[in-house]
């Protein structure tokens, strides 16, 4: 159960409060350290899945922990970034991304309950979206870095692209699940009467 892929996923969860603490340290190096912590966490997201498949070490615990770790990491980082820069320009993609994660998680849970989980399995589009989210969050974390004034705007643009892909992938998931959703609605009403 505690194989290397699962330990990497657990490390990602442990790095979430580390990221938050480092982000709020008032020191010139803090933005770089926070971006590095987030970058390490993002790399474990790729590495744990790769190793689990490569070494045939997939497990129910890993299947549960991996998406939880991903969603926690992204949601916490986005909330922290929004608190540091509370403008509508940042609030819109943050709202879309977190809202989509809640919606798709609920959809997957419901589809699993009716035995149709494969209908809303993770797609390549979701992986591209996740990659863009991770890069954008790392860039936004750098804030006013010595790398130049282009870093934050680039992170914001990438976050908007990720938000658009997020909406697109949510529509794809909802479309795939629609036959079950539309049929289950009348069944649910009949069960309640």
Please tag this protein with its features.
81% helix; mainly alpha; disordered C terminus; 193 residues; single chain; 6 helices; Four Helix Bundle (Hemerythrin (Met), subunit A); 0% strand
Outline the secondary-structure elements.
Layout: H1 4-23, H2 30-54, H3 60-84, H4 88-113, H5 124-141, H6 151-192
CATH domain topology:
Four Helix Bundle (Hemerythrin (Met), subunit A)
How would you spell out the order of helices and strands? HHHHHH
Stretches where pLDDT is under 50 for at least 5 consecutive residues are: 184-193
Provide the structure class: mainly alpha
- Tell me the β content: under 5%
CATH architecture: Up-down Bundle
Number of helices: 6
The CATH class designation is Mainly Alpha
What's the pLDDT, averaged over the residues?
Answer: 85
Distance between the termini: 44 Å
The named CATH superfamily: CDP-alcohol phosphotransferase transmembrane (TM) domain
Largest sheet composition: none
Shape: globular
Overall strand count = 0
- Fraction of residues in H or I helices: over 70%
State Rg.
Answer: 18 Å
Overall domain count: 1
Describe the structure.
Helix 1 packs parallel to helix 3, helix 2 packs antiparallel against helix 3 and helix 3 crosses helix 5 (124-141). This protein has helices at 4-23, 30-54, 60-84, 88-113, 124-141, 151-192. The protein has a single domain, classed as CDP-alcohol phosphotransferase transmembrane (TM) domain (Four Helix Bundle (Hemerythrin (Met), subunit A), Up-down Bundle), CATH 1.20.120.1760. The chain is mostly helical. The radius of gyration is 18 Å and the shape is globular. The protein is built from six helices and no strands.
């Amino acid at each position: 159960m505690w194989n290397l892929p699962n330990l990497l996923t657990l490390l990602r969860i442990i790095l979430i409060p580390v990221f938050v603490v480092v982000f709020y340290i008032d020191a010139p190096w803090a933005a770089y350290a926070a971006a590095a912590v987030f970058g390490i966490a993002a790399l474990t997201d790729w590495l744990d899945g790769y190793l689990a498949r490569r070494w045939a070490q997939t497990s129910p615990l890993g299947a549960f922990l991996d998406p939880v770790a991903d969603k926690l990491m992204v949601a916490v980082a986005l909330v922290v970034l929004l608190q540091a820069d509370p403008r509508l320009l940042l609030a819109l993609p943050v709202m879309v991304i977190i809202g989509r994660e809640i919606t798709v998680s609920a959809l997957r849970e419901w589809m699993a309950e009716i035995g149709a989980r494969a209908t809303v399995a993770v797609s390549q589009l979701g992986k591209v979206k996740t990659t863009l989210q991770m890069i954008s969050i790392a860039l936004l974390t750098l804030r006013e870095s010595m790398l130049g004034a282009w870093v934050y705007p680039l992170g914001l643009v990438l976050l908007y692209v990720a938000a658009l892909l997020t909406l697109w992938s949510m529509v794809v998931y909802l479309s795939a699940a629609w036959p079950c959703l539309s049929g289950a609605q009348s069944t649910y009403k009949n069960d309640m009467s």
